[in-house]
Predict the structure of fumarylacetoacetase.
Amino acid sequence: MPEQSPLDLAEGDPFGPHNLPYGVFTTADEPGRRRLGVRIGGHVLDAGAAAQTLGSPYAALLAQPGLGPLLAAGRTAWRDVRRALTAWVTVPAHRQDIEPLLHPLGSVALHLPYEVADYVDFYASEHHATNVGRIFRPDGEPLTPNWKHLPIGYHGRSGTVVVSGTEVIRPSGQRKAPGDAAPVFGPSVKLDIEAEVGFVVGTPSELGRPVPLSGFRDHVFGLQLLNDWSARDIQAWEYVPLGPFLGKSFATSVAAWVTPLEALDAARVSPPARDFGLLPYLDDSGDEEPGGFDLRISVAVNGRIVSEPPFATMYWTAAQQLAHMTVNGASLRTGDLYGSGTVSGPDVHQRGSLLELTWNGREPLELPDGKRTFLEDGDEVTVTAWAPGADGVRVGLGEVTGRITPAVG
């Protein structure tokens, strides 16, 4: 009986030909040679070698050690390469050439798939923002007056965006509890997670020219899961009046796989109803294509699922965030990454941060190895997600993991 081909996937495999996310890998025999790969089932296809073998006009583009050149090539190239890849892994005549270029996932090392240019993080979940407001301003309005008029965000640190699996060193900094007379310096004692979705910019834009809502597909290549680690005690002491800084900039983990927007066409949904009329550059009420994505996220701490946030509830869409990010004339660069902000739903089990899940430490989580308020050294957090695809087949978005290690010094 002939051996089954890696291309013969089980029915409903979330990483079938309908998905084909991009990543960067190395092999044990060539650890210094990074290659652009595409995931198919439990294997990674060497995209550059496949393109060279089959005489693709995009062979040089796919033979690069990272995703950057393909990101910069623009929407036509993205579409053409995706069509070619789909044919390479589905047309029987290509099997003889493609099968030797497939590497089992367990045999390769995965790397950050592109060089991050700028990093911006938003605050787009009404449920998350409301919970945070109620925690810190219990006697006031939970949302700030501007929240439903513009997507609130801040600029992060692109150099500390790391690929899934990278250990996260507990950050140190100043912290001051409300009852303390003076601040102290030391490791964060309120280390938290933020389950998010990141959007990856491909085509740059010109300085001084805002990108409209309609430009989303022309500039954004795809998305990847993101965990924006947060030191809540450091953040609480530093953020007034200029916002997050050291409490956020020590590490942001992203999945090893970037899922093209085209793979998520069946997951597009309308965002929640707006409570106020939006200014024209943010008004998506007349758009033919819904701006939201129906992504189903799970958050696990040490293997125990603690939250299942629904991305479809996000008040602000990725297109609106892009439009707002550039409305002042700020330019986009290839490799820009912007995070959705913490994804939280209306129910307790849908809260995307420990700050919310434990109500700032007042309601500890029950885990198999003990109670948790915030993260302890040795804890591992895993965020996974999938989206509904055509014909009911799931689109896998991979995972982003990180384990906490003790502070340095």
Q: What stands out?
A: DSSP finds ten helices and 26 strands in the chain. Residues 118-405 form a domain with the Fumarylacetoacetate hydrolase; domain 2 fold (CATH 3.90.850.10).
